[in-house]
Amino acid sequence: MYSKNFLSKAVKVDEIVTLCSTFYAIDALATSIVPSQIARPKLSEYEYRQDQTNQINRMHTDSFILYCFHAFTGLKIILICNKTNKDGVNCLKNIYEVYADFVQKDPAYTLNQPIKNKKFDYEILRILGEL
Question: pTM of the predicted model, to two decimals?
Answer without folding.
Answer: 0.74
